[in-house]
Every structure is written in structure tokens, then in C-alpha cells.
Amino acid sequence: MTEGSPARDAWNAATELLRAEGKLSDSQTAFVRLCTPLALVDDVFMIGVSSDFVKNWISEHVAELMTDQVSQIIGRKLTLMISIDPSLSEQQSPPPAQSWNPPAPSSASDESPALHSVSAPDAETISPTLEKVDSPSLSFTAANSSEKNHFKSRLNPRYTFDSFVVGESNRFAHATSFAVAENPGSTYNPLFLYSDSGMGKTHLLHAIGNYVMRLNPKYKVLYVSSEEFMNSFINALSNNQRMTFKDQFRSVDMLLIDDIQFLSRRGKDSTLTEFFHTFNALTMSSKQIVISSDVAPKFLTGFEERLISRFSAGITASIDIPDLETRIAILDRKAKAGSIQAPREVLEYIATQMTTNVREMEGALQRASAWASLNHQPLSIETAEIALKDVLSDPESIEITAGLIMAQTASYFDVTIEDLRSPNRTRTITQPRHMAMYLCKELTDLSLPKIADIFNRRDHSTVIHAIKKIDKKMTEDQSLFSQLTELTARIKRVAKEQSTQLS
């Protein structure tokens, strides 16, 4: 028998999912929210309502739809049982049909040195980077900001719910993320998203933040990677600014923290302890926390049980490998966003060949488009095969590491690995460095902050800049495209040779 929270979570998730898909109208949603999930006993899902009228309305209009959706979430066919409890009328009232308006942001002193203001993110003003400041901790100061009561959220405006392609592999994660965005701090807190690299976790984190800030631009939302949290804390300790650090992280209304697994792999006990107290401070104040990881909470290593239990206290949602139709839809959305004229058969070809990493698949489309453009040919299966022969010709399972990429890049351009990791900004060093960063992103599962760390960069803004620069140059510079293709082939060949030697 499962009682209480699991039944409520399944009912709420089903509601938000159907609402997000347009299968529940506002009025239907209002009635569904008058129901109180009571328990799940064997194959019977029990809910309570306050009157015969509500029971009859639910039975006639939405019972079948809700039962089917809850059954999918639970994983078995269920029967819905509706009981009447007049006392529920004192606890419930129909929610308004309009979108949720976030509660007023937490008050912070105008004199706080850490928090300043920026309006809701838009495509022209957003910057997902950390600005260099005298303080070693994270800077929330936005350029050209005249107000004092906001701060820099560091959200990417391109990552929204509208630009996220929903399929069977990510439907539950999308629904719970949308529910959190509509009602932060009360529904699914914390929300824990997990999947392999390149499946869309980061997209959903940004989508949640962007949605909330569109509703209330003064809402304090902060996106940060776990490595940035750790580095900021270490710097705060070394500069005797621990209280400033606490004020920065504990005064937000929503904390979106990416790749939490790195906090245990590279963090020290004091960092984990500080995160534990930050987590408690925010949740006790009903502030929303959303966490992403490459594994479910119970499989995290290096974390104390008290943290793992708190990660599991809200709701966890996995994102699986997307099926073929979803992968095609993702590529179609990517092509339209990038003004790429890609025939359906080309999208099907790439989606069929690349099945395990959405980010790599999108990169393959970009590369194929760049090759066709440089050679003044239409994008077709034939041109895609030529452009991607070194990317797709991977019949064996081979391991490509950042070290291998850096070593082969250094050899190819006759520089050293130390040059690639140095602050040297001459063109003969910068372009090979950018290409190596780009290939680390394309050929490995490393996060952007991890790539930045490998290249001895302060934060991952330099990696983002490098990737964008190479993406752009690929469509303009035939020489660079050829170099990238040759270098990719060399890296894969060496990786395959190493794999053969070890086997």
C-alpha cells in the first residue's frame, strides 16, 4: 500500500502533463484540483471530493483521461475510486484559471553587496557568463543595471518550454518541470532531474527559470553549475567572505543547480556541508530548488545520506534516450531555429545514425549543413554522408578523452598542451584551443564547466564562446572545416588503436 505523497505526486503530475499537452482545459483543471488523492492500494487509486456534484462531474468529464494518465505514470493499469467527504470543501477552492503569479520575491537588503538587478532575460541582453569582479565569489551584478533589487540570473533565453521537444522519453520530466515553473516552492521541491549527458536536463533548468521570470521579472532566479558553486565557496573561504557567499545563495527565490554529481567528485567535505545548509535554508523558506545529475539520487557517490534523502524528498524525474520520432522532431526544431534547409530524409538519416546523445546529434546536423554550404551543394543524404563520415564511422565502442583530444590537437597544429591551457591569446594558439574545446564538447560527455576546468579557464563562458565561434566559422572557412574533419578522423583513429591494444 502506498499512501500520501506518492499518490498526490502521481495525480499532480498527470494533471500538469495533460494540461501541458492541451488535453485539459482551464475549467477541467480547476475541477481536477478539487480532488484530493488519498491512497494507492494495489490497483485502486482512491481520491476524495467534497460533493456528489464534483464526483459526478469528474466521472463524466475527466475520470477516464486522468485514470489512463495516472496508470502510465505508476506503470500499471489502475481503477479510479471516488469517495465523498464534505469536510474537503473547507480545505479546497477552485484555483483561478489564469496562470500562476509568483509570490513576492524574498526581501533582501538594498545594501547587500551581492544582489543587484536585471530585468527578465531576453535574447539581446542575456549573458550566461560570470563577470569578473574583485570578489572571488559568484557575481550577480548586471551591466548597465540601475535598479538595486534584482540580480543576474544567468539564464539562456533560447532554452524555453516552447523550444523543448516533448516525447515519451522526457514527458514526465517536462511535466514536472512545468509544474514547478507554475508553482515554485510548493510543488515538487526539490525537483531532481537526471539523465546521461546531452539529453536536455540543462534545457529544462533554464526553461523553468525563464518561465518564472517572464511571469515576474523581479523574481530572484539563479542558475549555477555545481563546480561554480564549489569554486565560489572555496574562493569565499580563502578571502574571508563566507557571509557574503551565504547571502548570495540563500537570498534567492529559486536555485537551479546543474551537474550536482561533480560536487562530490571534486568538492571537499566543507563544500558539501555548506550546500547542505544552503539547501535547508532555501527549502525551509519555501524557495524552489531544481537539481540535475547524471544519475538518480540513490546512485550518487560521495554524498552523505542526509543530502541524498533530501534530494529524494521532492520528486525525481529521469530523461531517457529519445525514440526515433522524437530525435527527428528535435532535429527539425534545430533546423528551423538555425534556418537550415534540411529535407526530412536527411533528418531521418542523422537521427538513425546517432541515437544516444541529443547534443552530438544536433552538432552533426550543424556540421552537415556547414559542409553543404561551403561546397555550394544542397543538403542531402549524400552530402550528409560525406560530411559526417568521420563522425559516424564508429562501429566499435571507443573511448575518447579530453586528454586525447588535446594531445592530438597540439600535435596537429604543432603547439603544446601547455599552450592550449595557457592564457596566451595569439591566433596560432587561440584557434587550436577553440577547436579542441569544440571537439571536447562534440566527442565526449563532459559538461561545459568540466571542459573549462580542463583548459584551465575560470568558468565555462570561454567554452561557450569557443563553440559558437567554431560553429560560425565552419560555414565560412573551408580550411577550418577541413582541419576539423581531419582532426576528428585522427582522434577517432588513435582512440580505436588504443582500444584495440587494450583488448
What do these coordinates show?
- With 503 residues, this protein is of the alpha/beta class.
- It contains 22 helices and nine strands.
- The strands form two sheets. The chain has a five-stranded parallel β-sheet, with helices on both faces.
- Strand 2 (36-41) and strand 3 (44-49) form a beta hairpin.
- The protein is globular, with a radius of gyration of 25 Å.
Write the layout of secondary structure elements.
Elements: E1 2-3, H1 5-20, H2 26-32, E2 36-41, E3 44-49, H3 52-61, H4 63-74, E4 79-84, H5 171-182, E5 191-194, H6 201-215, E6 221-225, H7 226-238, H8 242-250, E7 254-258, H9 261-266, H10 269-284, E8 288-293, H11 305-311, E9 315-318, H12 324-337, H13 344-353, H14 358-374, H15 381-387, H16 389-392, H17 402-413, H18 417-421, H19 427-443, H20 448-454, H21 461-474, H22 478-502
Helix pairs in contact: 1-4, 1-5, 5-6, 7-8, 12-13, 12-14, 14-15, 17-19, 17-22, 19-21, 20-21
